[in-house]
Amino acid sequence: MYLVDRDFGPLFIKFCTYFPYAVKVCLNGHEWLKRQLTRRGVAYEPLDNGIRSTEDAARVQAIAHQLDAAKIDAVVRKWLRRLPHPFTAAHRAAGYRYQLSILQAEFALTQVLDRPLTGRCFFEEVIRENLDIGRPDQMQLIFDRRITRRTPGQFRTRVLTEGVVPSLHVQYKKSKVKQYHKEGQALRTETTINDTYDFEIGRALHNLPALREIGFAANRRLLRVEHLSHDCRIGADHLDAVTQPIVVDTQRAAGLRFGDRRVLALMQALCLFALNPTGFRHRDVRTHIAQLLGRDPDEYAAGQTTYDLRRLRRHGLIARVPRSHKYRITSLGARIAMLYVRVYARGVRPAASLPTSAGSRRGPQAFERLDAALANFLQEARLVA
Length: 385
Fold this sequence. Notes:
Elements: E1 2-5, E2 9-15, E3 23-26, H1 29-40, E4 44-47, E5 50-54, H2 57-64, H3 69-82, H4 89-93, E6 105-112, H5 116-130, E7 167-172, E8 175-182, E9 186-193, H6 208-230, H7 236-243, E10 246-248, E11 251-253, H8 261-272, H9 282-292, H10 302-314, E12 318-320, E13 327-329, H11 331-352, H12 362-380
Antiparallel strand pairs: 1-2, 2-3, 4-5, 6-9, 7-8, 8-9, 10-11, 12-13
């Protein structure tokens, strides 16, 4: 049944014709918001699944927050009373009722750009900075998973060429975060939750506020990680504090020395879990760190993992989630981890691998190119002497 509701606009209700007669309802919160703004006389310029501009953004946001589980339940009950469905009046009188659950929920953040062309260039640069696997014609960001031709599963790939809209995908279990340009005018970041149990939350409709918090937090987290990758510079004081031993509550923690193989493995593991909305456990990082060190998991003992996580926590790079055995990466931790990984992968390792033999003609040329590239980078970053 395709319907046009006074409050929610276009929606549809799909009835299953066999037992247990399930019902699927699809509605759009943006359409609800637009109709509320029209009824209240708030001027706005619409955008597909969003608002492009308005003179009273604070009021529009306040109205958007009023959409809750009660309003969704009310509109569904209203149409169930009007539409024919398998449960007759006798069934309803006997207590048979539909209970709403969340099959899929999408939470979007739309940032309208003053200069769309500049925003697109920035977004393409962010993708290049955050993606270093796969071929250029098959660029896809899958969270903590390498994509090859033999990788099972169905994946989407957007080719970053002229005339193609750039798109970024981050996978987490059955849910995903997607980012793309909306109609060439806005940067759209949206989290789609396909299974609420990915976040240890039930499917009942009253869990919508908790899912809303997770969805919008994931959007902000992706933007924060992109900001860090675009500009991961930190203060000299922070860098010096991280590399030196520290004493917190009479407990000493060793420093995280740049260039140490074990420290670099820790930092790279933090980057893998930077977008994890529920945090990570001791056992989650142990396998990754062992793989990055080139060891079997049994060779990287649980006690070593505990020692390394304690170092990260004492230095403020991770924080324990209250009333749990999970950790989350902090803002400082994300910056330092990104800095360590990027500087080593793009500066130290390529420079150390350049040929140095006297008979090599490529060595001096390579060093000249490296010096020119570094000079250009320092000029752009305003770090020249």
